[in-house]
Amino acid sequence: MSILNFWKADGCSRLFHGLFRMHVILSNGIYLVWRHCIEN
At the top level of its lineage, which domain of life is listed (predicted)? Predict the structure, then answer.
């Protein structure tokens, strides 16, 4: 039971980290494109 709970918690944390990383990458990309458009 504890192993299953640990696996579920690990899976959720991995999913959360993956989404957070994607969000950061998207935010940086949008910011870079916005700066590029403003400078030109």
Answer: Bacteria
